[in-house]
User: Which sequence fits this backbone?
């Protein structure tokens, strides 16, 4: 079974600090996605990484796909209270684009 | 519509009752997914439709769960003889070939079985 393990499960930090959250698997994924979910809402796609070693930036968020395409990280610089939410990584199950599986998520809380 | 719409937003039902949850996907999206999300967990895959047919229903937990999409648009997730363990947020998502693997989610239906 392909599993996506996310760490840490919870993270609470002060506004202005930097942080990194991780998504790991023992299996190779053709691509990985990062979603952000706020309470009472569905997840919203932030980015898709496809190429091993790829780095994508979205304002203060930096996403990296591992060289072996088994892991990914999300780094947030100078976190702000608006970054609070549940960050989910997801990928195609057995590399089938039509079945996306999710990790359990990292719940991030930024304190003002 | 502009986005994926799910109704009702909240549903409280008694143990043993039958419930139907509705999903109205983005117009033109051929793929439709149902996920279940328990408190503190990520979404768990239930079933995927491509058009009218269920391409993969391997995530349905048991035969009390059934989903249909008769005209390739709106989908209904049906749960018979509900149990307290069925309580969760049920998320629907849709996608199209032009959106790649990006899935657009609705706000979910929070089901509470008492």
Assistant:
């Amino acid at each position: 079974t392909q599993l996506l393990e996310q760490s840490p499960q919870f993270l609470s930090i002060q506004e202005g600090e930097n942080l990194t959250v991780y998504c790991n698997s023992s299996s190779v994924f053709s691509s990985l996605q990062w979603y952000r979910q706020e309470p009472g809402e569905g997840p919203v796609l932030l980015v898709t990484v496809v190429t091993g070693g790829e780095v994508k930036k979205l304002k203060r968020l930096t996403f990296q796909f591992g060289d072996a395409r088994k892991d990914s990280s999300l780094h947030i610089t100078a976190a702000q209270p608006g970054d609070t939410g549940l960050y989910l990584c997801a990928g195609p199950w057995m590399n089938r684009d039509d079945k996306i599986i999710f990790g359990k998520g990292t719940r991030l809380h930024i304190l003002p | 519509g502009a986005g994926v719409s799910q109704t009702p937003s909240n549903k409280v039902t008694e143990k043993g009752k039958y419930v139907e949850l509705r999903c109205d996907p983005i117009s033109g999206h051929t793929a439709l997914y149902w996920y279940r999300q328990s408190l503190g967990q990520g979404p768990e895959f239930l079933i995927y439709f491509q058009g009218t047919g269920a391409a993969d229903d391997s995530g349905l937990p048991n035969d009390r769960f059934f989903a249909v999409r008769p005209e390739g648009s709106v989908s209904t997730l049906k749960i018979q003889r509900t149990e307290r363990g069925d309580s969760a947020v049920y998320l629907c998502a849709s996608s199209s070939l032009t959106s790649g693997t990006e899935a657009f989610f609705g706000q979910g239906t929070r089901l509470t079985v008492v």
The interface with chain A takes residues 4, 31, 33, 35, 40-45, 48, 50, 55-56, 91, 93, 100-108 of chain B (CB under 8 Å). The mean pLDDT of chain B is 92. The CA atoms of residues 46 and 61 of chain B lie 8 Å apart.
